[in-house]
């Protein structure tokens, strides 16, 4: 089964995550081929059940938070429930052109990493990647924790406001390079996230890995927005082919996943019952198999909201479809003892179930007409309307 200011664009980061982990991390075969440990039925059930549960968390809560992001975008605000007030927290809209290029970017990234691991020392590459994902993970976990911190932060402690501003030039030519506004709550989140980050760097513990992985996945679902259902179908269809090709057609995915050390997958030990927190025989799920279907499910939730019918029919149908597809992936993998491209099962389920529901309700045309616009499109539209008024 198979991802800050100045950080890569969200869609690029998600492409990297998907490229690295989409499928090979289906189970323990990839990284534990030489292990002699044989998982018990109880341990296997616990591991895969936990992976499914962890996969559902960022999709469900990320989709809910994406609705808040979408409303903030429509109002032209840069403030979310998370407490951050920065342009980096605005959602990134994926267009049909982006969706069509996504599998190509992912394939180039994957093959490039494959060549890097073949040519250069794996140790030094993973050291650089660990530092890079440490920085991204701390910021992602801080953003994820902010709503919870806002709810539990003691009222007796003053919540002071801060701003980090870095500019270039002077006078009228002054240009903002970094402009972060934050408060005491955000600083507390950052400190806690940094402790988790140091724990991950020093120990590479699976719990620290999962905390970062969940944060990456939730942020991806929250901040990556498909502009319409057609774009979602293009994206999922392209990655469906990508996933099948790199898993069944080559050994590239297996080689990269075996060599790559970064919190871009969720893991759970199958020997937890025998060895406790020191367990090391992991079942794994790549973040690409969470984020990619997750952003489509989040789009359907926003479509539900746009209908103003106080129902979440399409969200729940796609959410249940995801559970079915992931369960089917695990079943096939466990039956045939071979890594499976999860999107082979997730894409037909997540797209097919909502489409069938829309056909039954007579809302298929309305579903495919639903459109979201990016902030850039809104700005261009506003400029165009202003020009017309001036004329």
Descriptive notes:
By secondary structure, the chain is mostly helical. 66% of the residues lie in helices and 8% in strands. The protein contains 14 helices and six strands. It has helices spanning 10-21, 41-75, 96-119, 122-152, 184-203, 206-223, 229-249, 252-259, 272-275, 288-307, 313-336, 343-361, 364-369, 375-390, and strands spanning 92-94, 161-168, 175-183, 224-226, 265-269, 282-286. The chain has a two-stranded parallel ribbon with strand order 1-4. Strands 2-3 form a two-stranded antiparallel sheet. A hairpin with a 6-residue loop joins strand 2 and strand 3. Helix 4 (122-152) packs antiparallel against helix 5. The longest helix has 35 residues, at 41-75. The chain is globular, with a radius of gyration of 21 Å. The model is unreliable at 2-17, 19-35 and 77-85 (pLDDT under 50).
Q: Can you count the helices? A: 14
Tell me the structural class: mainly alpha
Q: Ranges with pLDDT <50 over ≥5 residues?
A: 2-17, 19-35, 77-85
**Strand line-up of the largest beta sheet:** 1-4
Order of helices and strands, N to C?
A: HHEHHEEHHEHHEHEHHHHH
Main beta sheet: 2 strands, parallel
Estimated share of beta-strand residues: 5-15%
Count the strands? 6
Which term fits the overall shape? Answer: globular
Helix percent reads 55-70%
What is the average per-residue confidence, as pLDDT, rounded to a whole number? 81
What's the end-to-end separation, in Å? 57 Å
């Amino acid at each position: 089964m198979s991802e800050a200011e100045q950080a890569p664009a969200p869609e690029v980061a998600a492409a990297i995550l998907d490229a690295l982990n989409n499928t090979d991390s289906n189970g323990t075969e990839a990284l534990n081929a030489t292990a002699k440990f044989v998982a018990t039925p109880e341990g296997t059930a616990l591991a895969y059940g936990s992976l499914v549960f962890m996969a559902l968390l960022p999709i469900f809560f990320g989709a809910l938070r994406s609705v808040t992001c979408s409303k903030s975008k429509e109002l032209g605000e840069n403030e979310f429930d998370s407490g951050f007030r920065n342009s980096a927290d605005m959602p990134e809209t994926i267009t049909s052109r982006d969706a069509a290029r996504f599998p190509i970017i992912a394939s180039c990234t994957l093959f490039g990493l494959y060549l890097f691991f073949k040519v250069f020392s794996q140790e030094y590459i993973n050291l650089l990647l660990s530092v890079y994902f440490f920085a991204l993970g701390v910021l992602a976990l801080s953003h994820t924790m902010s709503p919870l911190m806002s709810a539990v932060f003691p009222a007796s402690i003053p919540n002071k406001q801060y701003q980090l501003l870095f500019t270039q030039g002077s006078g009228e030519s002054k240009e903002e390079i970094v402009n972060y506004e934050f408060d005491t709550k955000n600083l507390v989140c950052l400190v806690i996230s940094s402790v988790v980050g140091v724990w991950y760097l020093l120990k590479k513990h699976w719990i620290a890995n999962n905390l970062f992985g969940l944060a990456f996945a939730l942020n991806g679902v929250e901040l990556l927005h498909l502009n319409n259902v057609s774009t979602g179908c293009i994206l999922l269809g392209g990655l469906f082919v990508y996933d099948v090709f790199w898993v069944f057609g080559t050994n590239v995915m297996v080689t990269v996943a075996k060599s790559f050390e970064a919190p871009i997958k969720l893991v759970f030990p199958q020997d937890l019952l025998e060895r406790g927190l020191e367990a090391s025989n992991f079942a794994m799920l790549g973040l690409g198999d969470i984020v990619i279907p997750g952003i489509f499910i989040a789009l359907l939730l926003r479509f539900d909201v746009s209908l103003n019918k106080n129902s979440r029919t399409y969200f729940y149908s796609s959410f249940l479809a995801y559970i079915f597809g992931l369960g089917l992936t695990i079943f096939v993998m466990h039956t045939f003892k071979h890594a499976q491209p999860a999107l082979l099962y997730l894409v037909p389920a997540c797209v097919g179930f909502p489409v069938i529901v829309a056909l039954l309700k007579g809302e298929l045309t309305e579903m495919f007409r639903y459109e979201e616009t990016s902030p850039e499109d809104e700005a261009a539209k506003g400029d165009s309307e202003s020009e017309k008024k001036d004329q």
